[in-house]
Design a protein that fits this description.
197 residues, alpha+beta, Aminopeptidase, globular
Amino acid sequence: MNIEIKPLTPDLTPAYLDFFDNRAFSDCNPNGPCYCNAPIMDQTSLRQMESEFGDDCKGVLRRYAVKQLAEGKIHGYMAFDGDKPIGWCNADNIECYVKNDFNFIPVFARQNARGKTMAVVCFTVTPVYRGKGVALALLEHVLADARAKGYAFVEGYAKIQENDPLYDFTGPIHLYERAGFSEAARVGGTAVMRIAL
């Protein structure tokens, strides 16, 4: 397996959609369907989207994602094995993630930012590729890119109770530790993992 990490660009839209349409939740993970568009949506937009679900939740989520991708609002990194998309990491400037009911960014992190910070809010890896270093490769690419762009810190928000399928998208604490992060705080059930660049 040869993992290649690429920042999400408009030309990767078909791969992004293929990943979330067919691969990310092929094991019936309770986080699917998802197109990783909620972190950038304010509460009003989330309610509007949810009001449109009816009996086609996946279709509505996908339609919103297509629009957000076209507008350049979703940011992150895709992992590939050859031309096959196998993983995704949603990462961007902490200021780009708005406050909504999901609280992707803990209030503590917003109030205690110590410089230009890139936030990692989601990992998703195709089931057959889990446990093979894909998430770590994504996180290491985030770190390298953040350094190159002049960020002072990178943060992730791992749930303290690991192996909970509803929150496995945040990445486990040990993943961040393997990449050099340390725990900055525990807030509720979340460990704020931080690394200075």
